[in-house]
Structure formats: C-alpha cells, structure tokens
Amino acid sequence: MPLDYQKVQYVCAHYQHILTIILFCSINTSALFFDFSVAPATEQEELVSTKRLRLATSVMSDGSMGTSKNYREYEHLSNILRFFFKHGIPDAPEHVTFTPVHGKRTALVDASNAGTAIPDCDGIYTFTPRLPLLARSQDCAPVLLFDENQTFVAALHAGWRGAVAGILGEFVRKLNTEHGIDPATVHVKICPCLLPCCFEIQQDVCDKVLENFPKTAIGKNTREQAVLNLVRILAFQASDAGIRTQHISNDWECTSCTKNNNGSYRYFSWRRDHTRGNNMCSVIVLL
Ligand SMILES: [Zn+2]
Fold it and tell me: What per-residue confidence (pLDDT) applies to 22?
C-alpha cells in the first residue's frame, strides 16, 4: 500500500505538539520540585570517601533511633550501634546528640560531652576526632557540615521554623567569625526531609517565609495548595553565607512519600503517620 505522505506529516506534527506539551510540563514540574543549584549527593559522597570523615542517614529499615530522652533503652541503642557499625562510624568513646527546640542555637561540644544530649539547641559541632554527632528527625531536615581541611564537623536540625529563623546561615557566619573557618571550604549535606510534593503550608507560614526568602521557596501543588521548599530555603541561606553552590547537596528523597523497590516506605514521617518517637538519625564524625 503506498504511504499517504500528507497523513504521515499530520501524525508527525501531532506527536511533535504532544512532545512539546510533555516537555513544557516536565520543565515546570521540575522548577517546582527541584532546585538545580543543589548538587546531587553522590558527588559529595565520593569526596567524603576520600576524607577522614564519615556521614550517613538511617532509613526506616534500620529501626527507630529513639529520642534524645529514651535512646539508651536497649532497642534504640542497639539500632544506633548497628547503624554505626554498618557505616564504619566509631562510637568511641560515645556519640553526642541534642534536644531540638526549633530555634537556631548551636553548641560547641568535645570529648567531655560524650554520651550526652545537649539540651535546648538545634545543632552541635566539634573539632574533636572520633566523636560522632547525631541529629534525629522525621520530616525536619538534618543538615551535616564539614570543611575540606577536616577541621570540624557539625549536625544541625532544621524544620521550617529553624530554617526561616536562619539557623544554617547564622551557623556558617559563626564558624567564620568565632573559629576562622572560610565558608568557601565548607560542604553542606541537607539530609532527607519533607519535600514540596508533601509539604503543604498555610498562609501564616507563607507570610513568614516570604519575609526573608525569595518567592521560589514556595510553590503550588496540583490541588492549588501552597507548598514549602525547605531544601531551597536552606540552600539559599548557605550560599548567602558564602558556601559554594557546588558544595551544597541533597538526595531529593521525600521522607513522606519515597518508597523502596518493594513498595514499603523508606523513612519515618510525622506528616504521613503522626507517630511520635520513631526517628531516623543523621550522623557525622571526624575519623
Ligand atoms: Zn513527598
């Protein structure tokens, strides 16, 4: 049968039109959900593997890492130790953690704090090797920091309140003014947290965010609800404080909706399950 060239031309033009629409939609969805100024975490992991430090975040299948108050109960402590072992993190003498209050205070810790939880702060940092720092979270963002000279490590906790208060930017400036650490040498890993796909917010939160951050920190989902991009807020303040864009990374895995290959959820999520006490942990240590 001879080819009907007019028909072929029509079909091609039709498909080209559809392809244009798909491309346009995907670019716009990406603009809402992804921030290309944040590097993929794999690049940073390659760097970390060559340095004298370790960092890792647990997943639901590692078990609950408890809270800063109850983690010495057998189940939680054994989960923590198993997780440390899996990632080559020494627990000697013991790790340091903290009790977050959704503020922006950070505390310097050393070997004298080993085995304790620092009260009323949202971040700890140390210049002491072999002292793991541990941040617990569900949907809030744990933020791990280190510098290229392996002088210090830090573990912060940033929910929307702490992020909007500027915890990360303020901490980077403190490192510079109080400890002489050049922000250009600092790397930031924003660990898994609630992403815009699941982070609907109300008008009062929108107003607070827009007081200090660009409009791109907030988007709209398919239900026309405002959604917060916590990673973008953190990346913005890190780069505003002098950290190089290519030194800021995130896995882009949402704690509420990311699933494993077998269909089970990968992370604990308050937004999804409303269960207290089941936390992941993010850990960083100088070796
Ligand atoms: Zn999600």
Answer: 42
